[in-house]
UniProtKB/TrEMBL annotation:
<dbReference type="Pfam" id="PF14065">
    <property type="entry name" value="Pvc16_N"/>
</dbReference>
<dbReference type="InterPro" id="IPR025351">
    <property type="entry name" value="Pvc16_N"/>
</dbReference>
<feature type="domain" description="Pvc16 N-terminal">
    <location>
        <begin position="6"/>
        <end position="185"/>
    </location>
</feature>
<protein>
    <recommendedName>
        <fullName>Pvc16 N-terminal domain-containing protein</fullName>
    </recommendedName>
</protein>
Length: 197
């Protein structure tokens, strides 16, 4: 679900850039390769890059029930894992001015649309990864690290800083469709109750 989430966000921002005639390509990639001199580094030139920075489990939702009722049967499953994704959007455009404009328009788009659901989002469903994606809902929150945190982030990513913005994508649900067990649903209690001394 992590790839699908980032791919949907990428497509949504591409559509917005096309609508406002901002001709910048958007790419899912590892921005830390930017100055590595590798083949992958060349692909990052002149692009707006989506990089997965961190994954954090949402601990408040760990105690969800491990069963559900389906067709009058109780199915036991491990509860889904709910995670928050930290998404770094970096503008590695051909000029600094274009990079700043790309970041500004990225913030503008995600300010106008923070909540993405399967009912309010049109995306390319022909992608093979989306064949099991029936329902989703996630929320983007602008995350502002302190200067020293930002320095540590870019230091880890290789040094020089690009114009960028960091988002926390809340509540991406990851669940494998695996039933652990099932049993008949208890619908009534029978028998006789006698006086007990």
């Amino acid at each position: 679900m992590i790839f699908e989430t980032l791919q949907i966000l990428k497509e949504q921002l591409e559509n917005y850039f096309a609508a406002i005639n901002l001709e910048e390509d958007i790419l899912l990639g590892n921005i830390s390769l930017w100055e590595s001199g590798s083949v992958e580094a060349k692909e990052l030139n002149g692009k707006v890059v989506f990089t997965l920075l961190n994954i954090e489990e949402e601990s408040t939702l760990k105690n969800s029930p491990s069963f559900k009722v389906v067709n009058n049967k109780t199915e036991y499953r491990n509860p889904p894992v709910n995670v928050n994704i930290f998404l770094l959007v970096s503008a590695n455009c051909n000029t600094y001015e274009r990079s700043l404009r790309s970041i500004s328009k990225t913030i503008e788009f995600f300010q106008a649309k923070k909540i993405f659901t399967s009912s309010n989002t049109v995306y390319n469903r022909t992608n093979v990864a989306f064949d099991v994606l029936a329902y989703f809902k996630f929320v983007l929150v602008l995350y502002t690290p302190r200067f020293e945190e930002l320095n540590n982030i870019w230091g880890t990513l290789g040094g020089r800083q690009l114009p960028s913005v960091l988002y926390k994508v809340q509540l991406v649900q990851i669940e494998r469709d695996k039933k652990l067990a099932s049993s008949e649903l208890i619908t009534h209690i029978g028998g006789n109750v006698e006086h007990i001394k």
